Amino acid sequence: MIREYVEEAIENAGGYTKGVENKPDSNMGITQNMLTEYRGNRATSSDLQHLTRAEAEQITYERLWQATGFSALETKDSVTKLLFETGVTYGPTESVVLLQRALDIPPTGILEDETKWGVKHEDPEVLVTKIQRRLDKLKKRLRA
């Protein structure tokens, strides 16, 4: 299922866009810094412009799913989808923080054993509702 979410995120991000003000150039949701980190050497603007969809999908999968530790969670698809979408929109650390707050765990932004245990033992639909409430508060705060 997660691969479908990755493909959808890449599709929604669109192609290459030139950055404005504090927003960097991106291609399929990938920035030059993300590409540099992934490849392990300095990526150029041209590298970003010529990024393949397959590489963009792999970067998104590794950065927003595997690196967060979400791939090790034992949970329902509804929770998986919400965590991934939140990671795409707000970043992986904020996604973990939202999850931890929904579980009433002190937010560290790191997917620790206590958080994994909480996910495993919380009713998935209740957890989705709790995460969504926290997400709504975050959106409201960001609009203010």
Structure in a nutshell:
By secondary structure, the chain is mainly alpha-helical.
Number of strands: 3
Instruction: Report the β-strand fraction as a percent range.
Output: under 5%
How confident is the prediction overall: mean pLDDT?
Answer: 91
Rg calculated over all Cα atoms: 16 Å
* Strand-pairing-aware structural class: mainly alpha
Main sheet properties: 3 strands, antiparallel
Q: How many alpha or pi helices? A: 8
Shape: globular
What's the order of the H and E elements?
A: HEEEHHHHHHH
Helix proportion of residues, in percent? 55-70%
**What is the domain tally?**
2
Report strand order across the widest sheet. Answer: 1-2-3
Low-confidence stretches: none
Q: Kindly, what is the distance between the CA atoms of the first and last residues, rounded to a whole number of angstroms? A: 35 Å
Your description of this structure?
With 144 residues, this protein is mainly α. The chain has two domains: 1-67, no CATH class; 73-144, no CATH class. 65% of the residues lie in helices and 4% in strands. The protein has a three-stranded antiparallel sheet with strand order 1-2-3. α5 (77-90) packs across α6 (92-102). The N and C termini lie far apart (35 Å).
